[in-house]
Amino acid sequence: MRKLCLVMALAAPLGMMAQKAVNPTPFANTITAEDLKKHLYIVAGAEMQGRETATEGQRKAATYIENYFKQVGLTPGNNGAWQQSYPVYQDSLGSASIEINGKKFQPYTDFTANLGGSSSSSLMASEVVFVGYGISDANRDDYKGIDAKGKVVLVLAGAPPAAGQPAAAPRRGGMSPVLEAAFKNGAVAVLQVQPGFPRKAGSTRGYQYINGFRKTIYPNVYAVSEQVAQSILGADFAPAQEAMKAGNPQAKAYAANIAIDFQKVITKLESSNVVGVLEGTDKKDEYVFLTAHYDHVGVNAAGQIHYGADDDGSGTVTILELAEAFIKAKAAGKGPRRTIVFMTVSGEEKGLWGSEYYSEHPIFPLDKTTVDLNIDMIGRIDPTRKIGDSTNYVYVVGDDKLSSDLRIISEAANKKYTKLELDYKFNDPNDKERIYYRSDHYNFARKGVPIIFYFNGTHADYHRPTDTPDKIDYVQMAKRAKLVFYTAWEMANRNDMLKRDIPLNVPGR
To answer: What is the pTM of this model?
Structure first.
């Protein structure tokens, strides 16, 4: 037994050394400009309709990715399924009306309601309370002496002369002081006088959102015209406006028979992350994530498709090529020690929805996830970059935030294989663009998973219909993709998981 144990003890490190001695270059070289281009002309083609989250175009893109994962030989990553679905909600306007003392006011001509911030409501009241600027805080209380509980309140446009910020400036959680004060004082609805009526009729569909269930229901806020305010205040309207300018409007209750009806339809949609897995060998219960977002912003009001070739078709098709390269390595008997998870997420353009959903509903343990290498825009050149080689570079973001291992590994892989200029510009804590917080790696980082975000910078076609596949530098894109491959290769095969020895000490997004 002792002799056998000695033989086994000697064999284990030799096996590890043999794994490390494998030359990954033949597999990296399967990542080609031609293959990237072939995929990108499909993913960023007209058929995908800009891949907006929770649309048919996004679903087509997900199907393409799923089919390719199947084709190359990955296994489904979500407990036998290829996609991890999450709910998306969208409001549409059913009807809206305001009637005061028998006079009917029309949507857009005299009032509007925020679809996303309002709830279906129907109420009839015999009194409206005028509360000036509608502020109630430690510095000013426009509700003083007034019982607004269960009442409709009216707020005129303007800000107190001595105030340091406009009355409508958002406070905590994005809530305006007017809404905060109305909620605190128990109002059931707010009529807020605003300029610009009549207004052009807008879309009856609201923005998409993922937080369908609210902890708190706030009163509806209706933007209304001066004509609505006059119908309530009557002869007091002009004096109230003058008092507002002087900073001393007086709260007062007005008799008015008011009926407000607002009805919206909430449609439950669905989006998904596409997850493919390549199982590791002796460290298969530890994970390397390779991610990119496959959604974009869809079709604009003029009917123009936003193709999203660079953002982030370039990252999406790189994931496809990385999957193929690692599969070929495994077929040659050189498979990774750790399990590699190839995940393309949706909802990034809406607010990092897909990666946020994954981070809150992880399929694989986050404490066993050694790294997330995230790719978002690697097919173009930043026209503002003037230092060094303006083409042979990539921005490396976040490698200094959580693990002191990361930069060492990244730079070693680059020095040995790809010889790109690694630009750390966006690691600056004072980065005004806050690039570190603006892609899907962030939802891994906030959970403590070390990350690197690969990025080429923005350009004139960013978020425009002109971000098309013909403008991609596929040779440079392939070189950047190979850097990700070589870095992932080391992450997947090294003896230890990455150290998590640097606290995430920068503020959240």
So the answer is: 0.88
